[in-house]
Structure formats: C-alpha cells, structure tokens
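Page 47, continued from p. 46.
Same chain as before, 188 aa.
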Amino acid sequence: MKTRMSRQRLLIAMMALPMLAHAAEDALLLETRAVATAMPPKLMAELQKEMAAGGLVSAIAACRDTAPQMAKEISAKTGWQIRRVSLKNRNPKAVPDAWEKAVLTEFDQRVAAGADAATLEKAEIIDDTYRYMKALPTQPMCLSCHGNAGEIPADVKTKLRELYPDDRATGYTVGAVRGAISIKRSSM
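Result:
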C-alpha cells in the first residue's frame, strides 16, 4: 500500500512538472511583454515633444540618443537586456543577431500575408536564455524620417546622412515592420 501511494505521488509530480514549466513560461511572457510595451509609448511622446520644440531634425535625437538611454535604464531596472533591431537598420548597433534576423523575417512574411504588425511577438527559450521580440510597426509620423525619398524633407535627409552615412532605414510604409524591441535574459 505504501509503495503504491509513493508511486502515485511520483506520477502526480511527474505530470505536474510540464504544467509548472508552462506556467513559468507564461509568467515570463507576461513580464517580458510588460517591459517591451513600456518603451514605445514613452519614445513616441519624446518624439512628439522634440518635434513640437524644434521640428523634425530635432526629433532625430530622440531616436538616436533618448531611445538607447531608455533601453539602458529599463535594462538596469528589470535585469532584461533590451535593444531595438531592424533588418534595415539606421544605427549600426541595431544589427540583428541570427535569431533576431529570423524573427524579423518571419514578422515581415506575416505582415505580407495580412497580419497586423502591432500584434506580432515571439518568445522562446534557447540555451537557458529567454528571448522575446515585439514588432514595431511604422506609424504615420515615422515616414518623415523612414518613408520613401519623396516623403523625407531635405533638412532631415541632410541630418540623417551626417549622422548615419550607412543608413538603410528608409522606404517604409505605414503598418510595415520597422524593426522590433528585442529582449533577453540569460541563465533562466
């Protein structure tokens, strides 16, 4: 009788492990999603503030200086490594690694098939590292710096060439995947 109860408890425990692992992954996803969604609205507010104060050229500093500082502060506060990446990067530090590149490519394919870029995310555990990406859709206000050549004012083009001689981050349309917030935490 005692052996039978021990086996039942062991069996119950073994059955519970996948459920506990799934619950832990769900908790990580919720935590990561909260981190990922905190930064874009703050950056948009900063962009609008800079545009109101000094125009489009002034707003370039928000993406160039403020966004990386925000990511650094959130990373320090949460313990997550946060950065923005893009297949067509402007900032040389925004080049995606192999996993990020694959996810961004998948996001582009899903948008081409009719998905809403604002809903796209991916989470995965790879070699004890939790990885998460959330697509950043191109907003109408983004086109002044990231749209087609005819949509970008001359003074903005000049400033972008000065700051980013190898700029690849143009030619976007509203709703396209401009890039993504990429988040990871090692040693899960």
